[in-house]
Amino acid sequence: MPATERVKALKILDAHNLNEFSLFQTTESLLSTIACRSLELYKKDH
């Protein structure tokens, strides 16, 4: 898969609740999921 499709694929997986936290259920994975969502997946371009 091309690196350019990374965010698109992660958004699809996250929409189906497949993320680091749902798989591992640790505090560290929760923080990683929150960071991924806020910094990469759903950031707003101004």
Distance between the termini: 28 Å
Q: Rg from C-alpha positions?
A: 11 Å
Query: How many distinct domains?
Result: 1
Unreliable stretches? none
Number of strands: 0
Shape by Cα distribution: globular
Approximately how much beta-strand content do the residues carry? under 5%
What does this structure look like?
With 46 residues, this protein is mainly α. The protein has one domain (3-41). The chain contains three helices and no strands. It has helices at 6-15, 20-24, 27-41. The longest helix is centred in the C-terminal third of the chain and has 15 residues, at 27-41.
Brief synopsis:
The chain has three helices and no strands. With 46 residues, it is mostly helical.
Top keywords for this entry?
single chain; 46 residues; mainly alpha; 3 helices
